[in-house]
Amino acid sequence: MIAAARRDSQSAKLLVVDAEGGIRHLPRATLGALFSQGDLVIANDAATLPASLTGIHCGSGKPIEIRLAAWLSVRDPTRFAAIAFGAGDHRTPTEKRMLPPPLLPGDQLAFGPLMAIVEHPLNDPHLYRLRFLGDRATIMAGIARQGRPIQYTHVRESLSLRDVWTKIAADPIAFEPPSAGFALDWRTLENWRQRGTGFATLTHVAGISSTGHPKLDLRLPFDEPYRIPERTAVAIKRAKSKGKRIIAIGTTVVRALESASFADGSVRAGDGIASKHLGRETSLRVVDTLLTGLHQPGDSHFELLRAFADETVLLKLSAVCIRNGYRIHEFGDSMLIERRRTAVRRSFSLLCCGRAVTTEPHLEMN
Protein backbone atom coordinates (compact mmCIF):
# COMPACT_ATOMS: atom_id res chain seq x y z
CA MET A 1 0.00 0.00 0.00
CA ILE A 2 1.02 3.59 -0.60
CA ALA A 3 1.43 6.17 2.16
CA ALA A 4 -0.76 9.21 1.44
CA ALA A 5 1.02 12.48 2.16
CA ARG A 6 -1.89 14.90 1.81
CA ARG A 7 -5.66 14.90 1.89
CA ASP A 8 -7.14 14.33 -1.58
CA SER A 9 -10.90 14.02 -1.39
CA GLN A 10 -11.43 14.35 -5.12
CA SER A 11 -9.67 11.11 -6.11
CA ALA A 12 -10.06 9.20 -2.83
CA LYS A 13 -11.21 5.60 -3.13
CA LEU A 14 -13.58 3.55 -1.01
CA LEU A 15 -13.21 -0.19 -0.41
CA VAL A 16 -16.60 -1.64 0.59
CA VAL A 17 -16.62 -4.97 2.44
CA ASP A 18 -19.94 -6.66 3.15
CA ALA A 19 -20.77 -9.03 6.01
CA GLU A 20 -19.86 -12.11 3.91
CA GLY A 21 -16.49 -10.68 2.88
CA GLY A 22 -17.58 -9.52 -0.58
CA ILE A 23 -15.64 -6.53 -1.94
CA ARG A 24 -16.58 -3.53 -4.07
CA HIS A 25 -14.38 -0.65 -5.26
CA LEU A 26 -16.07 2.77 -5.34
CA PRO A 27 -15.11 6.44 -5.40
CA ARG A 28 -15.30 7.81 -1.87
CA ALA A 29 -17.56 10.55 -3.22
CA THR A 30 -20.37 7.93 -3.41
CA LEU A 31 -20.43 7.65 0.40
CA GLY A 32 -23.50 9.90 0.61
CA ALA A 33 -25.60 7.36 -1.30
CA LEU A 34 -24.66 4.15 0.52
CA PHE A 35 -26.97 4.25 3.55
CA SER A 36 -30.73 3.94 3.87
CA GLN A 37 -33.53 5.88 5.48
CA GLY A 38 -33.40 5.43 9.25
CA ASP A 39 -29.75 4.33 9.36
CA LEU A 40 -27.65 6.38 11.78
CA VAL A 41 -24.14 7.65 11.09
CA ILE A 42 -22.07 8.70 14.13
CA ALA A 43 -18.84 10.70 13.89
CA ASN A 44 -16.23 11.97 16.32
CA ASP A 45 -16.25 15.79 16.52
CA ALA A 46 -13.02 16.14 18.52
CA ALA A 47 -10.61 18.73 17.16
CA THR A 48 -6.87 18.04 17.25
CA LEU A 49 -4.41 19.69 19.60
CA PRO A 50 -0.98 20.81 18.38
CA ALA A 51 0.39 18.08 20.65
CA SER A 52 4.05 18.10 19.57
CA LEU A 53 6.06 20.59 21.65
CA THR A 54 9.72 21.39 20.96
CA GLY A 55 11.77 23.03 23.66
CA ILE A 56 14.71 22.80 26.05
CA HIS A 57 15.56 20.52 28.97
CA CYS A 58 16.45 23.23 31.46
CA GLY A 59 18.97 21.16 33.43
CA SER A 60 21.19 20.32 30.45
CA GLY A 61 20.20 22.95 27.90
CA LYS A 62 19.64 20.17 25.35
CA PRO A 63 16.75 20.16 22.89
CA ILE A 64 13.73 18.00 23.59
CA GLU A 65 10.45 17.18 21.90
CA ILE A 66 7.49 15.85 23.80
CA ARG A 67 4.38 14.41 22.22
CA LEU A 68 1.36 14.63 24.44
CA ALA A 69 -0.14 11.14 24.48
CA ALA A 70 -3.00 11.05 27.00
CA TRP A 71 -4.94 13.20 29.43
CA LEU A 72 -4.49 11.97 32.96
CA SER A 73 -7.82 13.67 33.60
CA VAL A 74 -9.64 15.90 31.15
CA ARG A 75 -10.79 17.97 34.12
CA ASP A 76 -7.18 18.64 35.10
CA PRO A 77 -5.50 20.28 32.08
CA THR A 78 -2.15 20.54 33.87
CA ARG A 79 -1.14 16.85 33.71
CA PHE A 80 -0.47 14.69 30.67
CA ALA A 81 1.23 11.47 29.73
CA ALA A 82 3.87 12.28 27.14
CA ILE A 83 6.46 10.57 24.93
CA ALA A 84 9.87 12.27 24.95
CA PHE A 85 12.49 12.51 22.18
CA GLY A 86 15.80 14.29 21.79
CA ALA A 87 16.92 16.48 18.89
CA GLY A 88 15.26 15.94 15.52
CA ASP A 89 11.83 16.15 13.98
CA HIS A 90 9.16 14.11 12.23
CA ARG A 91 11.32 13.59 9.13
CA THR A 92 13.27 10.96 11.09
CA PRO A 93 11.33 7.70 11.58
CA THR A 94 9.87 7.69 15.06
CA GLU A 95 11.62 4.45 16.00
CA LYS A 96 15.00 6.02 15.07
CA ARG A 97 14.61 9.28 16.96
CA MET A 98 17.33 10.28 19.41
CA LEU A 99 16.66 9.66 23.07
CA PRO A 100 15.91 12.70 25.22
CA PRO A 101 18.32 13.93 27.88
CA PRO A 102 17.95 11.84 31.05
CA LEU A 103 14.71 12.95 32.68
CA LEU A 104 14.34 12.87 36.45
CA PRO A 105 11.41 13.82 38.67
CA GLY A 106 11.44 17.57 39.19
CA ASP A 107 13.26 18.39 35.94
CA GLN A 108 11.93 21.48 34.20
CA LEU A 109 11.18 21.70 30.49
CA ALA A 110 10.75 25.02 28.67
CA PHE A 111 8.63 25.38 25.54
CA GLY A 112 9.00 29.09 24.98
CA PRO A 113 7.20 30.72 27.92
CA LEU A 114 5.31 27.48 28.63
CA MET A 115 6.92 25.49 31.43
CA ALA A 116 6.45 21.84 32.45
CA ILE A 117 7.83 19.68 35.25
CA VAL A 118 8.63 15.98 34.92
CA GLU A 119 6.77 14.16 37.69
CA HIS A 120 7.79 10.53 37.06
CA PRO A 121 7.99 7.80 34.39
CA LEU A 122 4.77 5.86 33.76
CA ASN A 123 6.01 2.27 33.94
CA ASP A 124 8.01 2.75 30.77
CA PRO A 125 11.29 4.67 30.26
CA HIS A 126 9.81 6.53 27.27
CA LEU A 127 6.48 7.57 28.80
CA TYR A 128 6.39 10.33 31.40
CA ARG A 129 3.89 12.14 33.52
CA LEU A 130 4.25 15.91 33.02
CA ARG A 131 2.71 18.82 34.89
CA PHE A 132 2.42 22.17 33.16
CA LEU A 133 2.63 25.36 35.19
CA GLY A 134 -0.28 27.77 35.13
CA ASP A 135 -4.04 27.70 34.90
CA ARG A 136 -6.09 26.08 32.14
CA ALA A 137 -6.24 29.18 29.96
CA THR A 138 -2.48 29.76 30.21
CA ILE A 139 -1.62 26.14 29.45
CA MET A 140 -3.98 25.74 26.50
CA ALA A 141 -2.86 29.06 25.04
CA GLY A 142 0.78 28.00 25.45
CA ILE A 143 0.16 24.68 23.70
CA ALA A 144 -1.65 26.52 20.89
CA ARG A 145 1.25 28.94 20.40
CA GLN A 146 4.19 26.57 20.86
CA GLY A 147 2.86 23.24 19.58
CA ARG A 148 2.54 21.63 16.17
CA PRO A 149 0.41 18.68 15.08
CA ILE A 150 2.01 15.30 15.69
CA GLN A 151 3.15 13.85 12.38
CA TYR A 152 5.29 11.08 10.93
CA THR A 153 7.74 10.56 8.08
CA HIS A 154 5.17 9.82 5.37
CA VAL A 155 4.32 13.55 5.38
CA ARG A 156 7.50 15.54 4.82
CA GLU A 157 6.01 19.04 4.91
CA SER A 158 5.03 20.50 8.26
CA LEU A 159 1.31 20.26 8.88
CA SER A 160 -0.87 23.05 10.21
CA LEU A 161 -3.95 22.64 12.38
CA ARG A 162 -6.05 23.27 9.28
CA ASP A 163 -4.63 20.06 7.82
CA VAL A 164 -5.64 17.90 10.80
CA TRP A 165 -9.09 19.26 11.67
CA THR A 166 -12.14 17.56 10.19
CA LYS A 167 -15.07 19.59 8.85
CA ILE A 168 -17.02 18.87 12.07
CA ALA A 169 -14.17 19.61 14.51
CA ALA A 170 -15.37 21.16 17.79
CA ASP A 171 -13.44 20.97 21.09
CA PRO A 172 -9.64 20.62 20.71
CA ILE A 173 -8.96 17.61 22.94
CA ALA A 174 -7.59 14.91 20.58
CA PHE A 175 -3.85 14.24 20.24
CA GLU A 176 -4.07 13.03 16.65
CA PRO A 177 -6.94 13.59 14.23
CA PRO A 178 -9.97 11.28 14.18
CA SER A 179 -8.98 10.91 10.55
CA ALA A 180 -11.89 8.79 9.30
CA GLY A 181 -13.81 12.06 9.52
CA PHE A 182 -11.76 13.48 6.66
CA ALA A 183 -14.15 11.57 4.38
CA LEU A 184 -17.02 13.81 5.48
CA ASP A 185 -17.97 16.96 3.65
CA TRP A 186 -21.10 19.08 3.57
CA ARG A 187 -22.28 17.50 0.31
CA THR A 188 -22.20 14.03 1.89
CA LEU A 189 -24.03 15.25 4.98
CA GLU A 190 -26.69 16.89 2.82
CA ASN A 191 -27.13 13.69 0.80
CA TRP A 192 -27.74 11.76 4.03
CA ARG A 193 -30.24 14.34 5.17
CA GLN A 194 -32.17 14.10 1.93
CA ARG A 195 -32.17 10.29 2.09
CA GLY A 196 -33.41 10.25 5.68
CA THR A 197 -30.12 8.87 7.01
CA GLY A 198 -29.49 10.18 10.50
CA PHE A 199 -26.28 11.88 11.60
CA ALA A 200 -25.05 12.34 15.17
CA THR A 201 -21.77 13.04 16.94
CA LEU A 202 -19.85 12.15 20.06
CA THR A 203 -16.53 13.43 21.36
CA HIS A 204 -13.67 10.97 21.84
CA VAL A 205 -10.05 11.81 22.63
CA ALA A 206 -8.23 10.21 19.70
CA GLY A 207 -4.78 9.20 20.93
CA ILE A 208 -1.40 8.77 19.30
CA SER A 209 -0.88 6.06 16.68
CA SER A 210 2.81 5.31 17.36
CA THR A 211 5.28 5.89 20.18
CA GLY A 212 8.36 4.70 18.30
CA HIS A 213 8.94 1.94 20.85
CA PRO A 214 7.61 -1.56 20.04
CA LYS A 215 6.85 -2.63 23.62
CA LEU A 216 5.06 0.61 24.36
CA ASP A 217 3.15 0.40 21.07
CA LEU A 218 1.65 -2.87 22.30
CA ARG A 219 -0.21 -0.83 24.91
CA LEU A 220 -1.90 1.32 22.27
CA PRO A 221 -4.49 2.64 22.20
CA PHE A 222 -4.14 4.18 25.63
CA ASP A 223 -7.24 4.86 27.71
CA GLU A 224 -9.28 7.55 25.97
CA PRO A 225 -12.03 9.70 27.52
CA TYR A 226 -15.25 10.18 25.60
CA ARG A 227 -18.55 12.02 25.91
CA ILE A 228 -21.79 10.76 24.36
CA PRO A 229 -24.54 13.41 24.20
CA GLU A 230 -28.02 12.43 25.34
CA ARG A 231 -29.41 13.17 21.85
CA THR A 232 -26.93 10.71 20.32
CA ALA A 233 -27.90 7.97 22.79
CA VAL A 234 -31.58 8.61 22.00
CA ALA A 235 -30.93 8.46 18.25
CA ILE A 236 -29.12 5.10 18.65
CA LYS A 237 -32.00 3.63 20.63
CA ARG A 238 -34.49 4.82 18.02
CA ALA A 239 -32.49 3.37 15.12
CA LYS A 240 -31.95 0.05 16.91
CA SER A 241 -35.65 -0.27 17.72
CA LYS A 242 -36.40 -0.04 14.00
CA GLY A 243 -33.74 -2.54 12.98
CA LYS A 244 -31.60 0.11 11.29
CA ARG A 245 -27.83 0.19 11.00
CA ILE A 246 -25.42 2.12 13.21
CA ILE A 247 -22.45 3.32 11.15
CA ALA A 248 -19.34 4.48 13.02
CA ILE A 249 -17.05 7.01 11.34
CA GLY A 250 -13.72 5.82 12.73
CA THR A 251 -12.37 3.39 15.27
CA THR A 252 -12.62 5.98 18.06
CA VAL A 253 -16.40 6.01 17.64
CA VAL A 254 -16.46 2.21 17.89
CA ARG A 255 -14.43 2.31 21.11
CA ALA A 256 -16.70 4.91 22.69
CA LEU A 257 -19.99 3.27 21.71
CA GLU A 258 -18.98 -0.26 22.67
CA SER A 259 -17.53 0.97 25.98
CA ALA A 260 -20.85 2.64 26.81
CA SER A 261 -23.08 -0.16 25.51
CA PHE A 262 -25.81 -2.17 27.18
CA ALA A 263 -26.72 -5.73 26.21
CA ASP A 264 -29.67 -4.55 24.10
CA GLY A 265 -27.42 -2.36 21.92
CA SER A 266 -28.36 0.95 23.52
CA VAL A 267 -25.69 3.18 25.05
CA ARG A 268 -25.23 5.20 28.21
CA ALA A 269 -25.07 8.95 27.63
CA GLY A 270 -22.44 11.02 29.41
CA ASP A 271 -18.74 10.77 30.14
CA GLY A 272 -16.64 7.62 30.25
CA ILE A 273 -13.25 6.08 29.59
CA ALA A 274 -12.62 3.70 26.70
CA SER A 275 -10.15 1.38 28.38
CA LYS A 276 -10.70 -2.00 26.71
CA HIS A 277 -8.91 -3.19 23.59
CA LEU A 278 -11.36 -4.41 20.97
CA GLY A 279 -10.44 -7.34 18.76
CA ARG A 280 -11.15 -10.92 17.78
CA GLU A 281 -12.90 -11.80 21.05
CA THR A 282 -15.14 -8.72 21.03
CA SER A 283 -18.85 -9.15 20.43
CA LEU A 284 -20.02 -5.82 19.05
CA ARG A 285 -23.26 -4.64 20.62
CA VAL A 286 -23.84 -1.30 18.92
CA VAL A 287 -21.89 -0.76 15.71
CA ASP A 288 -22.94 -2.56 12.53
CA THR A 289 -20.67 -0.86 10.01
CA LEU A 290 -17.35 0.98 10.27
CA LEU A 291 -15.86 3.62 7.99
CA THR A 292 -12.13 3.76 8.58
CA GLY A 293 -8.80 4.23 6.87
CA LEU A 294 -6.67 1.44 5.48
CA HIS A 295 -4.61 -0.18 8.24
CA GLN A 296 -1.69 -2.59 8.22
CA PRO A 297 -1.42 -5.82 10.24
CA GLY A 298 0.14 -5.09 13.62
CA ASP A 299 -1.42 -1.64 13.99
CA SER A 300 -3.81 -1.21 16.92
CA HIS A 301 -6.48 -0.05 14.47
CA PHE A 302 -6.05 -3.24 12.45
CA GLU A 303 -6.56 -5.32 15.60
CA LEU A 304 -9.94 -3.63 16.09
CA LEU A 305 -10.96 -4.76 12.59
CA ARG A 306 -10.85 -8.35 13.88
CA ALA A 307 -14.12 -7.58 15.68
CA PHE A 308 -15.70 -6.99 12.25
CA ALA A 309 -14.16 -9.66 10.03
CA ASP A 310 -12.34 -12.97 10.37
CA GLU A 311 -8.69 -13.58 9.52
CA THR A 312 -9.39 -14.88 6.02
CA VAL A 313 -11.24 -11.72 5.03
CA LEU A 314 -8.63 -9.41 6.56
CA LEU A 315 -5.77 -11.17 4.76
CA LYS A 316 -7.71 -10.87 1.51
CA LEU A 317 -8.26 -7.17 2.15
CA SER A 318 -4.53 -6.53 2.62
CA ALA A 319 -3.76 -8.22 -0.69
CA VAL A 320 -6.56 -6.35 -2.48
CA CYS A 321 -5.36 -3.00 -1.14
CA ILE A 322 -1.81 -3.62 -2.30
CA ARG A 323 -2.91 -4.85 -5.72
CA ASN A 324 -5.18 -1.85 -6.28
CA GLY A 325 -2.87 0.86 -4.96
CA TYR A 326 -4.92 1.96 -1.98
CA ARG A 327 -3.33 4.69 0.11
CA ILE A 328 -2.83 4.29 3.88
CA HIS A 329 -2.39 6.57 6.88
CA GLU A 330 -4.55 9.48 7.93
CA PHE A 331 -4.78 11.17 4.53
CA GLY A 332 -5.36 7.95 2.62
CA ASP A 333 -8.33 6.13 1.14
CA SER A 334 -11.22 4.67 3.14
CA MET A 335 -12.80 1.32 3.85
CA LEU A 336 -16.43 0.65 4.75
CA ILE A 337 -16.70 -2.71 6.49
CA GLU A 338 -19.81 -4.48 7.85
CA ARG A 339 -19.45 -6.70 10.88
CA ARG A 340 -19.52 -10.40 10.11
CA ARG A 341 -22.65 -12.41 10.73
CA THR A 342 -22.15 -15.33 13.09
CA ALA A 343 -24.58 -17.43 15.09
CA VAL A 344 -22.59 -17.34 18.31
CA ARG A 345 -20.16 -14.66 19.44
CA ARG A 346 -18.45 -14.18 22.76
CA SER A 347 -19.71 -11.36 24.90
CA PHE A 348 -17.67 -8.24 25.46
CA SER A 349 -17.03 -7.52 29.12
CA LEU A 350 -17.54 -3.85 29.99
CA LEU A 351 -15.79 -3.60 33.30
CA CYS A 352 -15.15 0.11 33.42
CA CYS A 353 -17.72 1.74 31.13
CA GLY A 354 -19.23 3.77 33.95
CA ARG A 355 -16.01 5.35 35.25
CA ALA A 356 -16.01 9.11 35.49
CA VAL A 357 -13.40 10.96 33.51
CA THR A 358 -12.02 12.49 36.69
CA THR A 359 -10.50 9.10 37.48
CA GLU A 360 -7.03 8.57 36.02
CA PRO A 361 -7.22 6.12 33.11
CA HIS A 362 -5.71 2.67 33.45
CA LEU A 363 -2.29 3.37 32.00
CA GLU A 364 -0.55 2.19 35.15
CA MET A 365 0.46 5.78 35.67
CA ASN A 366 0.78 5.98 39.43
Helix/strand layout:
Blueprint: E1 2-3, E2 13-17, E3 23-27, E4 40-44, E5 47-48, E6 52-57, E7 62-71, E8 79-85, E9 108-111, E10 114-121, E11 127-132, H1 136-146, E12 147-148, H2 161-164, E13 172-174, H3 186-195, E14 198-204, H4 214-217, E15 224-228, H5 230-241, E16 246-249, H6 251-259, E17 270-274, E18 289-293, H7 300-305, H8 311-323, E19 327-328, E20 334-338
Parallel strand pairs: 1-19, 2-20, 4-14, 4-16, 5-13, 16-18
Antiparallel strand pairs: 2-3, 6-7, 6-9, 6-12, 7-8, 8-11, 9-10, 10-11, 14-15, 15-17, 18-20
CATH superfamily of the largest domain: QueA-like
Question: Which radius of gyration do the C-alpha atoms yield?
Answer: 20 Å
Total DSSP helices: 8
What's the total number of strands? Answer: 20
What keywords describe this structure?
8 helices, 9-stranded mixed sheet, 366 residues, QueA-like, alpha/beta, Thrombin, subunit H
Overview of the molecule:
With 366 residues, the chain is of the alpha/beta class. The protein has eight helices and 20 strands. A hairpin with a 4-residue loop joins strand 6 (52-57) and strand 7 (62-71).
